[in-house]
Structures are given as C-alpha cells and as structure tokens.
C-alpha cells in the first residue's frame, strides 16, 4: 500500500454506519490520485461473487472529455427522473416534505456538477452474450454490487465520498459506445468519487428494525 494514502482509522461499524451518499460535500477542487482509487479497489475485490467468477470490471474516468460524455447522459436521464419526482411529490406530498426537498436539491446539484467530480467509477460485469437474463437478475448483480459497495466503504475509510447512482443506465449503450466497452460488459453502477469536505458523517435516520424484520416467515 502506498504510504501517502491517508486512512481515517474508523472501526468497521463506524465505516458501515457513516458511509453516506455524498453530493454537496464532494470536494470538486481537490485532485484524487488514481492510486487512492486503485488501493480502495484492491479491498473491493475481496467481495464475494457467484462461483468466485470475479467477472467484474471497473472503468475509472479522470479524462475531462470522457467524464463530460457520461455526465451529459446522466443529466439527461436525471432531468426526466426529477420531473417525475416533482409531479409525484405535488400529487402526494411525503410525510417529511422538507427532507424530500433536501434530497431532491442534493441530487440536482450532483447532476449539475457531475462533469466536475475528480473521478467517475463505473462498476460493470461480464455477461456471456451481453444479454441479461429474464426475470430475477439477482445472480448477475449479486456478483458485482457487493464489490461496488465495498469500494464505497473503502473510499470512506480513505477520506473520500461517493454517491451510488444508476440513472445513467438509461443510456447504457451510448455510454458503452463512447467508452469502448464490449457488448458483453454490462454496467451496474456509477460512483462519482471525490475527497469530502470534512469527514464527520454520522448514521442516518432509518425506520425501526422491527418494522422490516421477519423471523421464520412474513
């Protein structure tokens, strides 16, 4: 491991309970060395995958033009998503409207600055033939997404933040073509990555466990 990589020395529980979707607190001005991302990826590759196939691939974008292409597709997808969300909130206001509006504002900010984020990381997986199976696809994504979340956790421990998003997948084929991805490589997640403005992230408010826990059946 490179000695220049700084660790926050958080406990496992602290990392797990304080890794947030970071948007407005991403530091757009501070460069992110590629070695920091690859160091975190070395940790992520310890995640499980079906039959230990390790069919994942990681596309790290730092080139401004490549980031711009992905950001433009993301912004286009987000615009439709945000419009639908605004209509839904107007028709059926959520119980915590203030929180919903803050989340919407944060998401809009990320769409506006996606091209400025120091690094974009796309997690993808090899799919024979390139066609996803019909029905439940847990077997495919279960071999990629645990590693992608491990990457988010490892980045947090190194003082960086990310925001899990899949909105660009509306234009998956266009992004794949722009990045030269083979047809049998399917994208599963986009992580904008940057150092964070401060590292004092706390556990988020969640519904009580008893409202979602089922023992020995529903």
Automatic annotation (TrEMBL):
SUPFAM superfamilies: FMN-dependent nitroreductase-like. GO terms for molecular function: oxidoreductase activity. Keywords: Oxidoreductase. Residues 17-194 form the Nitroreductase domain. Pfam families: Nitroreductase. InterPro entries: Nitroreductase, Nitroreductase-like. CDD domains: Nitro_FMN_reductase. Belongs to the nitroreductase family. This is Nitroreductase. It comes from Tsukamurella paurometabola (strain ATCC 8368 / DSM 20162 / CCUG 35730 / CIP 100753 / JCM 10117 / KCTC 9821 / NBRC 16120 / NCIMB 702349 / NCTC 13040) (Corynebacterium paurometabolum).
